[in-house]
Amino acid sequence: MLIGAMEAGGTKFVCAVGDENGNILQKTSFPTVSPEDTLASAKQFFSSFKMEALGVGTFGPVDLNKNSKTYGSILNTPKTKWRYYPLLEKLQSEYNIPVYLDTDVNTACLGEYYYGAGKHAESCLYMTVGTGIGAGFVGEGKVFQGKNHPEMGHMLLKQHLNDTFVGSCPSHRSCFEGLASGTAIEKRYGRKANLLTHLDEVWEIEAYYLAQGLMNIYVILSPEKMVIGGGVMKQERLYAMVREQFMKLLNDYLEVNDVDELIVPPKLDDEQAVKGAIALAVKNKR
Amino acid sequence: MLIGAMEAGGTKFVCAVGDENGNILQKTSFPTVSPEDTLASAKQFFSSFKMEALGVGTFGPVDLNKNSKTYGSILNTPKTKWRYYPLLEKLQSEYNIPVYLDTDVNTACLGEYYYGAGKHAESCLYMTVGTGIGAGFVGEGKVFQGKNHPEMGHMLLKQHLNDTFVGSCPSHRSCFEGLASGTAIEKRYGRKANLLTHLDEVWEIEAYYLAQGLMNIYVILSPEKMVIGGGVMKQERLYAMVREQFMKLLNDYLEVNDVDELIVPPKLDDEQAVKGAIALAVKNKR
């Protein structure tokens, strides 16, 4: 069975064809331009395969309310050409096969859950720490979805004692993303995060906020695995620092068998979203 | 169909018999003493009814992992007589009917979801603000449960600018419960909350923390209804203050149709847990 997968990112699209076990057979990528031109490039790639379904992980905001008239449409994005674009509807009419759509971070979470670091867990969080902070949660095989999709990057956190930065989030200033995203690090120190690797203080503060965000998620969702990826986490020493801070903040209040197994890096490199798009299609098709 | 319901609280037990629509036909309560004596009082009450199932909402910590050997047992509670007491097992062997068990706050949430303020919502949070802070979440008819049951009262929050209180939580100092429970209010001001009704500052700070806790839950779980009860909320002006702070903190980042319909008081007075215990039994039995 051939499954199509599309990671519709804000700056680039990744298209792939894989089998029902998440193995990618062929893959391509191209910049995100206008909807018409971008989807034409996708069509060109997919046209040489006979696919049975298509899974899509898209940038947002996107309407995921199945009872809504605009279900599957991009909402009020700063990318004006894509604003209110009916992505799901266009893909359905163009490919004439079942099309399933979720956010990019939710499909990334599905990818790690089915084929990656969360493979043997009952529930799994996937969090990406890059320009922004986003997260998805999968439990018992299903992406968690309340009235809206989660916006965990915008929870409010306690300020680090040595941090006087006002925060970089245009909406909330010092929310999680406003304190701990790559953008926040850059604005706090006036230099990009990857030029700050020699400064211990930078990573201590960063680890404190990441641990706090994870602790709040842990007391609310209690995932069996928490997979943390994204550009900022290329600073690999963060994993050990985050685990240590997390245990310190939790202070034995809840039992954690093995924090090294709870807070882990992704296993699918940069392919979690596209593999998750395959999983989305496979699991819904059944 | 007669359903038994038991709210096993740390200081008192409430036992009731109701029908499958959550109507209570008879109810009694008595202090929580030793397990043997308390369950004997329960047995005496229930023995005059022919019940088809029993639902139980219990104080904790309690083992809710169905794969665990100690599933349904009380865990390491400060109430020494109840420590490691196999509550579910004892009830099953005593009553010889199906017995279903969850935490008291989870069953309270089920009660409001099926019969109270969350009746027409797809998903519902129930939070109680009293001596401590606890919360449960029900979506699509099911209590949400990760690896552990939620401990939302222990998330970490930003300190209010005018609040120098170090917090009352023995484990985390200034977590949500350590800043906003009745215990926290009493320790911060040296007087019980109900003696502070004339001091606006008390309730402004309280509303700020409650709004922040709700905002963090909202960006993670996105409930359609958030029902807030418990002793502290008897200070009814808090509802309007919390709603105002919540909208201010959220700052239009997510759409909220009507905050007066999102953040609401309970509708079942103090019967949400016992009615929820009925719902737990009815929905599982089907």
Characterize the structure shown.
Chains A, B: Belongs to the ROK (NagC/XylR) family. Chains A, B: It holds the Pfam family ROK. Chains A, B: This is fructokinase. Chains A, B: It comes from Virgibacillus chiguensis. Chains A, B: It is an enzyme of class 2 (transferase). Two copies of one chain form a homodimer. By secondary structure, chain A is of the alpha/beta class. Chain A folds into two domains: 3-107 and 270-285, 2-Layer Sandwich (Nucleotidyltransferase, domain 5); 120-264, ATPase, nucleotide binding domain (Nucleotidyltransferase, domain 5, 2-Layer Sandwich), CATH 3.30.420. Chain A contains nine helices and ten strands. In chain A, the strands form two sheets. The first copy, chain A, has a five-stranded mixed beta sheet with strand order 3-2-1-4-5, with helices on both faces. In chain A, a hairpin with a 5-residue loop joins strand 2 (12-18) and strand 3. In chain A, helix 3 packs across helix 9. The two termini of chain A are 12 Å apart. The interface between A and B is large, with 37 and 37 residues.
Task: List the defining traits of the structure above.
Nucleotidyltransferase, domain 5, homodimer, 5-stranded mixed beta sheet, 9 helices, 10 strands, alpha/beta, 286 residues
Concise overview:
By secondary structure, chain A is α/β, with parallel strands linked by helices.
Quaternary class: homodimer
CATH topology of the largest domain in chain A: Nucleotidyltransferase, domain 5
Please tally the β strands of chain A and state the result: 10
Structural Rg of chain A: 19 Å
Q: Which regions of chain A contain 5 or more consecutive residues with pLDDT less than 50?
A: none
In what range is the share of β-strand residues of chain A? 15-25%
Major beta-sheet overview of chain A? 5 strands, mixed
What's the domain count of chain A?
2
Shape designation of chain A: globular
The total of helices of chain A stands at 9
Spell the H/E element sequence of chain A. Answer: EEEHEHEHEEEHHHEHHEH
Estimated helix fraction of chain A:
25-40%
CATH architecture of the largest domain in chain A: 2-Layer Sandwich
Distance between the first and last residues' Cα of chain A: 12 Å
What is the largest interface, and how many residues per chain? A-B, 37 and 37 residues
CATH class of the largest domain in chain A: Alpha Beta
Pfam families (chains A, B): ROK
GO molecular function, one term (chains A, B): ATP binding
Keywords (chains A, B): ATP-binding, Carbohydrate metabolism, Kinase, Magnesium, Metal-binding, Nucleotide-binding, Transferase, Zinc
InterPro entries (chains A, B): ATPase_NBD, Carb_Metab_Reg_Kinase/Isom, ROK, ROK_cs
